[in-house]
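Quick start: what a row looks like.
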Amino acid sequence: MLTHALRLAESALAATTAEDASAAFHASMSTLGATYLQTRLYRRPVTPLTSSSHWQAGGFIARFSPPAWPGSPAFNYICFDCNPLLGAIRSGLTRYRFSDFAPKDDPRYGAYWEAMSEAGMDDALCATSYGPGRAIASLHLGFERRSFSPDEALSIHMAGLMLTERIMSLAEPPEGETVHLTDRERDALAWVAEGKSDWEISVILGVSESTARFHVDNARKKLGAVNRAHAVARMTAARL
């Protein structure tokens, strides 16, 4: 399996730019029936992850698809109206199939797969690498078929991860959006850094305990932190 994955990724690993690595990988995967490839290198939004914020993060490197697909109603539908892959990003998954999050037999995703079929995709595989500073390199690889043996799927995924790691080493993601904390959010989080409880913060700031908790949690979400300690660390690192 690893030998097969290395063979699939060999030309991409030899490339010296992220664009060339993507093109080489597409050529390699075309021999397996791949109909679509998209690569990105971006920074995960610090605001809540939505279809819109995910798209606005930018960082698109390459896209190989039918010429009329980008910007079409079907393309816009899966990017903005029905994007079941946000859950995978929130979970930090490194490899999965689109059908893992949009089951083919679920009628809620009927329109989704109809839209995907316009780009010749009956299923797609994703490989994602996570780097420092919220950097994310991702590969979306679509196929006309949905049937893969376990070894074949694993080989493609492993090769895809080699590509995303190569992209991460070749290019820098665009600067992420600036985090704007309100005075209250910054003050509340600063008191968290001092070890104060929500009740103590509420007394210091002259607000209710629920309001103090609200300001702390808002600051945490804006910073993209998983807990309060993480939020304090990110606020400090960003010199906020």
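That is the whole record. The beta strands are 34-43, 60-64, 95-97, 123-130, 135-143. DSSP finds twelve helices and five strands in the chain.
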